[in-house]
């Protein structure tokens, strides 16, 4: 991950803390979780340092985050 990715990630997690914690309160929490990951992956891919799939971004970020 590049510095730009970290800035995007931290900004996104501040705006969507439920993604960072994995805790969603609605019945559609699983759908919301996937939607937020798709949005985040799009932002990260848009930073201009190559492309990764949603699954690869999720793996990299959860490995670094935990």
From TrEMBL:
It holds the Pfam family Myb_DNA-bind_5. Residues 7-59 form the Myb/SANT-like DNA-binding domain. Keywords: Transcription, Transcription regulation. It comes from the Eukaryota. The keyword Transcription regulation applies. Involved in transvection phenomena (= synapsis-dependent gene expression), where the synaptic pairing of chromosomes carrying genes with which zeste interacts influences the expression of these genes. Zeste binds to DNA and stimulates transcription from a nearby promoter. Self-associates forming complexes of several hundred monomers. This is Regulatory protein zeste. It comes from Rhamnusium bicolor.
